[in-house]
Specification:
It is a multi-pass membrane protein. Its main location: membrane. Keywords: Cell membrane, Membrane, Transmembrane, Transmembrane helix, Transport. The chain contains six helices and two strands; from the N terminus they run αββααααα. It is mainly alpha-helical. It has a single domain, classed as Orthogonal Bundle (Arp2/3 complex 21 kDa subunit ARPC3). Helix 4 packs across helix 5. The longest helix has 29 residues.
Amino acid sequence: MERNLTLIALFAALIAALGLIPKFTLASGVPISAQSLGIMLCGTVLGAKRGTLAVLLFLGLVALGLPLLAGGRGGLGVFNGVTVGYLIGFPVAAFVTGALAQAWRDRGGWIFPSVAALIGGVVVMNILGIAGMAVKLDKTLVEASLLATPFIPGDVLKCVLAGLITQGLQKARPGLLQA
């Protein structure tokens, strides 16, 4: 129990720390940041349940006003902005990534956690993020999708990193990964 709580808090802190890496904001108002890598790692390392709880803890702290999002944003107002779909997508992405990573854990290597991160952390998160942008920017889904296109190369790189980091942790600390 204490170990799980510690890992959940540690990974919530990891997501926050990845927000400190300087962001680049697109014309749509959505920042490109390293925080989505943290979401992916929550799933690939902690699994569906603990990964989702880590993301929910992070979002709870953001809602309380802590400036933990990229660019030092926080508070309830961020849940009414252009990034609301992505924020809603964070725990869903961690859950899907974690569920897939758990199902494929025995296959080993870095490819399967990378694919889990791609499906959960890119596809699922972008579906929700694009829907949120479409609503908030009063655009069609196609128009909002075009605004999200610049994210894709960086997101794919984050998937590969998530897979490599997960594989490294699996070798170094096999008991850390959720079975």
